[in-house]
UniProtKB/TrEMBL annotation:
Subunit and interaction comment: Homodimer.
Any single biological process term in GO: galactose metabolic process
Protein's name according to its UniProt entry: UDP-glucose 4-epimerase
Its EC number(s): 5.1.3.2
Organism of this sequence: Adhaeribacter pallidiroseus
Length: 346
């Protein structure tokens, strides 16, 4: 089958990566996964295959390994572009193990850019984060919101990576064009319930902790602080359905392929509205019919009180807007959790 071209997806077996691989395939591209399975499981590949009814090529490679990356690019021949997801992403862990985060998150981007330059691959979508805004003075945050000191080493790695891309663009000698997508909180799963968030060990993110508590894997859910200056005292975040987020990456690749992008561009990818942790819990209870056992605990280090996006630029320039709401995201996350349980019981 004729495709639009090969897109290398680093971290393509991960949560967001696997959904992006599906959307790329459905948009007519040929995704090629590069993943070392440190933060993901090979079962995600079977899920992707079941959805696409295709075998997606996968290279088991660490993206900080320059020589191994070279071999991937050598083996694949003509590569149209790259989406770079591969990164550690737990805020709390990054506070405890900063060197691990700097080595992996910054090192992998530097290695990738070197190899892209060598092989004359010029189009990159970079997986950035709203953590680059630190604790913002005003809400919602726009792309012009000042990037403040990050609240965690994880957030700082995203700031550094964006700086690297900007410096590369300013150098004048690089043909690489990059779009950095600063996204907010991805939640939910594919509607087929064949891929979804698959945390290794105890989840760091709210929604898998909710679904694991509801299904009985976790005894209770702790809400980290209800004394923030938010409507109900709990943290407020912009929760975006992972399928919408995956589609944003395809839109960004399209923009690069059509040579419509500046050398470096930044876009907020979110819904444009915030929901509190308690709101998410109550919405989950409504859509799933499950009563959650949750308790109120102390604040967690590194957490920003509230943040949500102004998505005007993404809507106007990228032509992207979300289609799915919090209810659909939480329902799909619950369907995915139930599917995991049914699979494990077979």
């Amino acid at each position: 089958m004729e495709t639009k071209g090969k897109i290398v997806v680093t971290g393509g077996a991960g949560y967001i990566g696997s959904h992006a691989v599906v959307e790329l395939f459905e948009a007519g591209y040929e995704p090629v996964i590069v993943d070392n399975f440190v933060n993901s499981q090979e079962s995600a590949l079977a899920g992707v295959q079941a959805i696409t009814n295709a075998t997606i090529k996968c290279h088991s490679v660490d993206c900080t390994d320059l020589e191994a990356l070279r071999q991937v690019f050598q083996a694949e021949g003509t590569i149209l572009g790259v989406i770079h997801f591969a990164a550690y992403k737990a805020v709390g862990e990054s506070v405890k193990e900063p060197l691990k985060y700097y080595h992996n998150n910054v090192g992998s981007l530097v290695a990738l850019l070197q190899v892209m330059t060598e092989f004359k691959v010029t189009k990159l979508v970079f997986s950035s984060s709203c953590t680059v805004y630190g604790v913002p003075d005003q809400l919602p945050v726009t792309e012009a919101t000042p990037v403040k000191k990050a609240n965690s080493p994880y957030g700082n790695t995203k700031q550094i990576c964006e700086d690297i891309l900007a410096d590369l663009a300013r150098s004048g000698g690089s043909p690489i064009h990059a779009i950095a997508l600063r996204y907010f909180n991805p939640v939910g799963a594919h509607p087929s319930a064949k891929i979804g968030e698959l945390p290794l060990g105890i989840p760091n993110n709210l929604v898998p902790f909710i679904t694991q508590t509801a299904i009985g894997i976790r005894e209770k859910l702790t809400v980290f602080g209800t004394d923030y200056s938010t409507p109900d005292g709990s943290n407020v975040r912009d929760y975006i359905h992972v399928v919408d987020l995956a589609k944003a990456h395809v839109v960004a690749i399209d923009r690069l392929v059509q040579n419509k992008a500046e050398q470096i561009e930044f876009f907020n990818i979110g819904t444009g509205r915030g929901n509190s942790v308690l709101e998410v819990i109550h919405t989950f209870e409504e859509v799933s019919g499950q009563k959650l056992n949750y308790v109120i605990g102390p604040r967690r280090g590194g957490d920003v009180p509230q943040i949500y996006a102004d998505v005007t630029k993404a809507t106007q320039e990228l032509g992207f807007k979300t289609e799915l709401g919090l209810e659909e995201a939480l329902k799909s996350a619950w369907d995915w959790e139930v599917s995991l349980k049914n699979t494990s019981e077979k």
